[in-house]
Amino acid sequence: MIYELVDHWQTKASVTQLCRVLGASRSGYYAAKAKEKMTSICVTTVHLKAAFAASGRSYGSRRLASALKAKSIVIGRYKVRRLMREAQIKTV
Question: What is the pTM of this model?
């Protein structure tokens, strides 16, 4: 609730000032924002899961990155690894 107030009043004052007044930590605010951002559906993750399923659940991060690039989705190997980890995608 406090972080929602910070979001609402952020145009009037800085995040640091608002957190200080409301008695919340600034790092907690940014952690809550990051968590909120991660819970939204990522279009790239949907494409990643589709490419993984099409491979017969056998492609790793390198091959998935190449498969996504073939679909005109520019993404690096390490981001593919992170998305695979977050989506709990593992090869058989």
Answer: 0.59
How far is Cα 69 from Cα 41, in angstroms, rounded to an integer? Answer: 20
Q: Are residues 48 and 81 in the same domain?
A: yes
Two tokens at 58? 């056998």
Tell me: do 49 and 29 sit in the same domain. Answer: no
Tell me the C-alpha to C-alpha distance, in Å, between residue 47 and each of 17, 60, 82: 41, 14, 14
Residues lower than pLDDT 50 in the chain: none
Which residues span the domain enclosing 50? 43-86
Which of 19, 50, 46 lies closest to 32, judged by CA? 19
CB atoms under 10 Å from CB of 64, counted, come to 24
Same domain for 9 and 30, yes or no, is yes
Same domain, 25 and 50: no
**What residues have CB less than 8 Å from 1, skipping those under 6 apart?**
none
CA-closest candidate to residue 80, choices 72, 67, 55, 58: 67
